Amino acid sequence: MTETLFRDDAYLKEAEATVLAVNERGGIVLDRTVFYAQGGGQPGDKGDLVRADGSVTPIATTVYDAADRKTIVHVPAEGAALPAVGERVTARLDWPTRYARMRAHTALHLLSVALPYPVTGGQVGDGEGRLDFDIAEAGLDRDEIAAQVNAMAAKDAPVTFRWITDEELLANPGLVKTMSVKPPMGTGRVRLVEIQGLDLQPCGGTHVRTTGEIGTVAVTGIEKKGKLNRRVRIALV
Fold this sequence. Notes:
- By secondary structure, the chain is of the alpha+beta class.
- The chain has two domains: about 5-95, Elongation Factor Tu (Ef-tu), domain 3 (Beta Barrel); about 100-235, Threonyl-tRNA Synthetase, Chain A, domain 2 (2-Layer Sandwich).
- Helix content is about 15%, strand content about 40%.
């Protein structure tokens, strides 16, 4: 089991850790990590594991172990030297990439407020992202949507989280906006992300502390993906 430091503090850029295992594919398991593991439409973090002798093992991405969702695997860059089991390392994020994803992810939550329709899919990118909505009618206006999102961002509303049990979430299905992506359940508790006065939904991803950190957002595209599906793309300006 990996201690997920990023859940409690998304701004923690590095942390010391111990190597628990190196799997047959070279994936590195630490006892604790600041690296977000791919999930919920957000990519896994990249960065470095800095070893005691100063050498660096580059990490290309981070994922959950296929057989155990409580274990996080750091995937090294091809050809990278691997640390030994029991070795102490410093896990250091590629912070600019992570922070861009945090801003974009929070902006997508605001997009789901501006467009209060069921969400059928989504993806967080490096300073951009998209949501797919189940919308019967077309006629969405890019500038109008962007204006709504930017007005909410300008409120500088606090972004906080709290935990509820799986049972509490099941008793409150209205909290779930996504139709195709299930909330991060299975560990007995679910993380709710709240944008004060604006939004509350289950989410395991990383977010900024206030909406003011998002900056300005542009709607870069609206695509028809089916009779009842519209894909809305945004980007940080």
